[in-house]
Amino acid sequence: MVQSVIEHFTKHYTRRIKNLLILLFTLLTSNLFSQNLVPNPSFEGYTQLPTSYSQGASCISTWRVPNTEGRAEYYHASSSSKKAGVPKNHFGSQEAHIGDAYMGLCIAKNIREFLQVGLTQPLVKGKEYQLSIHISCADKFWLGSVDEFAILFTKAPFVFPGIEKLLTPPSIIFTGDFSNKKEWIELTTTYVAEGTERYLPFGCFTYVEGGAEHGKIKGIANYAHFYVDDVSVELIEEEETILEEGALPEVKLDYVTEEKYIYENLLFESGSATLIPNEYSELEELILYLAAQKEYRLVITGHTDNQGSSELNHKLSLERANALKQFLVIKGIQEEVITVEGKGDKVPLASNDTEEGRKKNRRVQVTILH
């Protein structure tokens, strides 16, 4: 009897333990080597477990289903429903690529389902990123396939009305034979950012290019269903110059004690504490300078334009100062040497009557004290 209990336990939990170890390894290695900008990348986070299919929009955490028709599917190994389980579910059977969960998208003549997620931070203009999404064609015998998927990077959340065609081709297009109903297929490519990418919508879009219609469904039933798992957007780090021990790169700027340094390239969008991700070279030089100093203190002061109330602007200016503090701490500056303060809209550099002037007033400045 003891033997049978052990065999039952082993059979029931082996897959769960294996997936957990794989997920743990992935999370650890992603933190060590690069940062995935996609939150909840393998759909392990949820608001509630599915009790049937077509519950993706109400179950999944962080991600959204941006189409007006269809709710997408959320599958989880802990679901009590055979229609929403892992590996077996309404459209077939497939183990998760990683962890215990994945999403499902229906692609049909009268319905198109998509997924959309806000990145943890906007992509930086001119930087190169590695993109990866795993898909698997559901294996019910009557289901067809498609030969194209795409990413449509956007600055704001996107809503897809019905099954209308896109007016322009998507940002990134993956083509190929995706009809394999047994294995996961990785869609991967590199991408140079334009600097406006904040949201990642994904799916099989319909559009016309060069007179050819894209996004057609293959199969007699004119219906396809694809599982989606393990999504990542990671910055491709540039190789760093190897220096001799104790050596530091040449620092161009000669900082003066108690001088206020304003970073013109470190600007903020109106009403936001989010850094506009363009130029950070001056900050890198500041970090190199500080690395050569034995003792110092920093005072970071945030400023805003005059859009909004004085109370909110003061709060926002403090948040902006903290945003720069967090950036410096991540780069190795000790948190205890940094003091932050917010001045709101009380100390403008330029007139707030023009957008150019307001842009200059949305700033932070750094004072170095010895």
How much of the sequence lies in strands comes to 25-35%
Q: What is the CATH topology descriptor of the largest domain?
A: Jelly Rolls
Q: H/E order of the elements?
A: HHEEEEEEEEEEEEEEEEHEHEHE
User: SS-based structural class?
Assistant: alpha+beta
CATH superfamily of the largest domain: Galactose-binding domain-like
Strands of the widest sheet, in order across it, are 1-4-15-6-10
Low-confidence stretches: 1-13, 17-33
The CATH architecture category of the largest domain equals Sandwich
Structure annotation, total helices: 5
Our measurement of the CA-to-CA distance between the termini, rounded to an integer number of angstroms, reads 74 Å
**Looking at the structure, what is the overall shape?**
elongated
Kindly state the number of beta strands: 19
Report on this structure:
The chain has five helices and 19 strands. It has 370 residues and is of the alpha+beta class. It folds into two domains: 2-23 and 34-235, Sandwich (Jelly Rolls); 260-369, 2-Layer Sandwich (60s Ribosomal Protein L30, Chain: A), CATH 3.30.1330.60. The strands form six sheets. The chain has a five-stranded antiparallel beta sheet with strand order 1-4-15-6-10. The protein has a four-stranded antiparallel beta sheet with strand order 5-11-8-9, with no helix packed on it. Strands 16-19-17-18 form a four-stranded mixed beta sheet. Helix 4 (310-330) links the parallel strand 17 and strand 18. The longest helix has 32 residues, at 2-33. The termini are far apart.
